[in-house]
Design goal:
Shape: globular
Order of helices and strands: EHEHHH
Number of domains: 1
Strand content: 5-15%
Number of helices: 4
Strand order of the largest sheet: 1-2
Length: about 100
């Protein structure tokens, strides 16, 4: 039985989609099956539109996106399970937490 991974992407530009494809390719080479879902589509029509509007506004406001990213990427979520090591922002985006066995 192979390992399975769910990848969340966002239809906010090719960068998100290419990152998900790269992770899927990397995981597949290690024996993982992957499925990629569009997080914006999961929000529904209204939520997806609102999320896209917020994202576009953040990009259009000089320094806002970078500041938000810097703040959120330096904090470890308080509920991060101790069995998962290290937290996602401390390892490569495409590194699986375990190897297939």
């Amino acid at each position: 039985m192979s390992r399975q991974a769910l990848l969340l992407s966002g239809s906010l530009g090719a960068g998100h989609e290419m990152a998900a494809k790269a992770c899927a390719t990397s995981l597949a080479a290690r024996g993982w099956d992957t499925e990629t879902l569009d997080a914006m589509a999961l929000l529904g029509p209204r939520g997806g539109s609102a999320g896209e509007a917020v994202f576009r506004t953040m990009l259009a406001t000089p320094g806002l996106f970078d500041a938000f990213h810097a703040i959120t990427s330096t904090r470890i979520p308080p509920t991060w399970p101790s069995r998962c090591s290290p937290p996602p922002h401390r390892r490569s985006a495409c590194s699986p937490t375990a190897t297939p066995g």
